[in-house]
Specification:
single chain; plasmid; mainly alpha
């Protein structure tokens, strides 16, 4: 069973990597786009590599990894896209570039979210062993849902960060229960001491009404069963999330005008993950 689960990990990351290969742009077209990007009025941050990553990311994001350019070669599709964007400097491209300097902030935001999220998951996992059956069952239910949501978050983050196309992307896919004010988060180097666990409040909101209508004996039986059957599921989700995190970190390491994000030394700080 574990071997089967292990073989499933990383499929999304592999699909994104393959999509990037399928969207390969030849050297002559890259040289042409490089010349186009040096036209007067185009910000200096824009170059052929920046445009290529942005285009690839938009294609992957909108096609959910299933690439279909309508029979048009990737070189032609990319060149047409670049021409449209560079001819409209007041449109999406210019707006995106004007906010590029805030990319570090959003890398930091992503790092904070994953750290805090892991802490909430770990707290919920400990509470599965609570003597209170209601709390134990809510912890089991919430942990499964949280790990699945974390997996979806990582998948979308991989696609977004493969070309860093959306400065608001990470905030958009952040779970509502975990959201904080971005300007507040930007100033945090570590998790504030006064950040109390919030998983139980969220779990009560999600499952409390249902459990209130269940007999105590049923809740006790369900809590015991959840503790016994959830171990493999949790292990599999953590393995898959770990694989997707590796892919996400690889995208962080890609060269480009966002090297200034390294001033936060995010690459030297491993994301915490506890696998039992």
């Amino acid at each position: 069973m574990i071997e089967k689960l292990a073989n499933e990990r990383g499929k999304t990351a592999d699909r994104v990597r393959q999509a990037l290969k399928d969207l390969h742009i030849t050297t002559p077209v890259m040289a042409l786009v490089s010349n186009m990007s040096m036209a007067p009025g185009i910000p200096k941050e824009v170059n052929a590599e920046w445009l290529r990553k942005k285009w690839q990311s938009e294609v992957i994001y909108h096609s959910e990894g299933h690439i279909d350019l309508g029979g048009i070669p990737s070189d032609i599709a990319f060149q047409n896209w670049v021409t449209e964007k560079l001819n409209n400097p007041r449109g999406l491209l210019r707006k995106s570039i004007s906010m590029a300097r805030k990319e570090v902030r959003h890398d930091h935001l992503s790092y904070f979210i994953m750290t805090r999220w892991d802490q909430e998951n770990a707290c919920a996992e400990r509470m599965r062993d609570s003597d209170d059956a209601r709390t134990s069952l809510m912890a089991s239910l919430w942990l499964s849902k949280s790990l699945l949501e974390q997996s979806r978050y990582l998948i979308e983050a991989i696609i977004l960060y493969s070309g860093r196309i959306s400065r608001n992307g990470i905030e958009r896919i952040t779970p509502g229960w975990l959201k904080f004010d971005p300007d507040e988060i930007r100033c945090w180097d570590t998790i504030p001491v006064d950040c109390a666990p919030i998983w139980l409040d969220h779990a009560t909101e999600q499952f409390g009404a249902v459990l209130d209508n269940m007999r105590t004996s049923i809740i006790q039986k369900a809590a015991i069963q959840a503790r016994e059957t959830q171990k493999n599921e949790v292990r599999f989700l953590r393995l898959r999330n770990q694989s997707d995190r590796v892919a996400l970190m690889q995208f962080h390491q890609m060269s480009g005008p966002w090297k200034r994000r390294q001033c936060l030394e995010l690459m030297q700080t491993s994301l915490p993950l506890r696998i039992e």
